[in-house]
Every structure is written in C-alpha cells, then in structure tokens.
Amino acid sequence: MEEAPESYKNVTDVVNTCQAAGISNKVLKLRPIGVIKVMEVPEDDSDLLGKSVEQLNSDLAHRDAIIKGGLIDELAIRETVPVSEEDEVNEFIARSTALTRLKCVFFPNNAISDTTLSHAGQLAKGLPVLMGAGVGFTVGVVRAVTAYDQFVRSHQLTAWRTPEMAKRRAADYTLLRSMTFGISVGLKTTILATGCFTFPLIISACQGRTSFWEYAVGWGTSCFLFCINRGRRQMLVAGAVAAFPGLVYGCLNMVVSRTLRLTFEEMYHEQVRAIVHHRIQEEPPKLSEAVQ
C-alpha cells in the first residue's frame, strides 16, 4: 500500500493535536479541515490549506489565546466558581416548602437544635402537652377528694352488708369521677394551649412569614373546639369572642417581633444558615460545585 504524502501527515497531525488539546468540534469545523476530504492530495501544503504549516500553527496559537482569554462566549472556557455560603442560604430558603419548614421547626436535627426557631418549635410542641397533663392531674386529684366526700354524704344512711363493700364502692365511684373529670379538663387545656402557642407557629411555618392574624385564628379555633359539647351556637360565639383578643395580641406580637428581630423570616434565615454551615463542614466538595 502506497504511503500517504508528507502534507497529508502534517494535516493529520494538526487535527490530532487539536482534538488532544480538547478544542471543541465547533472549532474544528473550519474550511481547511474540510479540504481533507478531497480525493487527490497535492504535494504542497499551501495548495491544500491555503496556508503553510507555520501560518497554521500561528493561527492555532492565536485561537488558543482567544479561547483562554474568553473573548468569544461560545469558545470561552467556563471556570468553576465556588458558591458562597450566603448564596446557599438564599437558594435553600427559595426552594423550601411548607413541609420543609415544618420539619425544621418541630423536628430539627442536632446541627440546628440550638437555634432560636428550634427552641420555639420545641416549646410550642411540648408546652401544650405538659400543661394539659399538669392541669388534668391536679383537677383529677381535687375531684377525687370531692367525689369521695360526695359519695359519703349521699350514702351515709345506706345500710351496707359489710364495711369492705362500702369502701370498695366508694373507691370505684371516686376513681371513676376523678379520671373522667381530669381527662376531660386535661384535653381541653391541651386544646387551648395548642391554639395559643402551637397553631400560630404552624401557620407561620406554612406561609413562611409572621402575620398579625395568626393568633386570632389560633385562639378562635381553640375556643371553638373547647365548647364542642355545648352546641353549635355556643361554639361559634366562643370562637368569635376569642378571635378579637387574639387579633390584638397578634398585632402587638408582630410589632415586638420586628423590633427584636424575632420574626419567623429572620429566625428561619438563622436556622438555614446553621444548616448550610454544618453541611459545608461535613461535605465541602458538594458545596463548591461549578456554576455552569
């Protein structure tokens, strides 16, 4: 088989050099390269490419300078730009949904457990339960004393067969009354405390900001449910009556929160900053991705 001419080898070396240097296909689609498809290859490089090898090397050098300098947008090499922490925080806040904010408030991990919003969420989650249990237990004990006294007074003239039967009936009556009354009052206290403390924070987390009407909705809803066994009219009246002081308290709370910089937006921004800072410390390569 006949060996290819020296000019064809020079052109092939230029093409291989361009491809090895990582030059894009768009750059390689130049008119001189297309001439390679000609069936008859002349002996002189100037007839084939229109330029000599020295001129072609000079053009390639200028082309490399243009690519490295970024003078043409299509040929510019985009360098990796590290993303700052503040950009990560803003991106996290922009992509966060209501479910994400609720998880961050009420179910935070160890990295954000010391933030102000996490403390507020834990307090709003545990305080109604503690208040309901404490009030229910106290009321149940008091009711046990009054129920025993009531039983004794009601049956003081009753002739029991044995004293043991009388004691057992008194204990059953007292325990039933105290448990029923204590559980009922405890549940109602939990509902009221949830409407006063937890429900407004849930509304703030769902909408992503603090509003003045949150406490009006929370207080009105809790009083509406508190009177659930008293009829629909009493429930509506109780909800409407409780909504007005809740609205006043919500307006005052919003003014004070903005003054002390304790609105939901600012506390959530602080919490997200803690999340991003913890992520940077654990996974630095993932946070330095290139902005293409």
Task: Give me a quick take on this structure.
73% of the residues lie in helices and 0% in strands.
3D structure, described in words:
- It comes from Fasciola gigantica (Giant liver fluke).
- GO terms for molecular function: GTP binding; metal ion binding; RNA ligase (GTP) activity.
- This protein has 292 residues and is an all-alpha fold.
- 73% of the residues lie in helices and 0% in strands.
- It has helices at 6-20, 25-28, 31-34, 45-49, 53-69, 85-95, 98-106, 116-154, 163-207, 214-226, 232-260, 264-282, 284-287.
- α7 crosses α9 (163-207) and α10 packs antiparallel against α11 (232-260).
- The two termini are 49 Å apart.
Question: SSE layout and pairings?
Answer:
Elements: H1 6-20, H2 25-28, H3 31-34, H4 45-49, H5 53-69, H6 85-95, H7 98-106, H8 116-154, H9 163-207, H10 214-226, H11 232-260, H12 264-282, H13 284-287
> What is the residue-averaged pLDDT?
75
Unreliable stretches (pLDDT < 50, length at least 5) are 31-39, 284-292
Counting DSSP E segments of at least 2 residues, the number of strands comes to: 0
Reported for the largest beta sheet, the result is:
none
Structural class: mainly alpha
Helix content: over 70%
- Percent strand: under 5%
Radius of gyration: 39 Å
Number of H- or I-type helical stretches: 13
Task: List SSEs in N-to-C order.
Answer: HHHHHHHHHHHHH
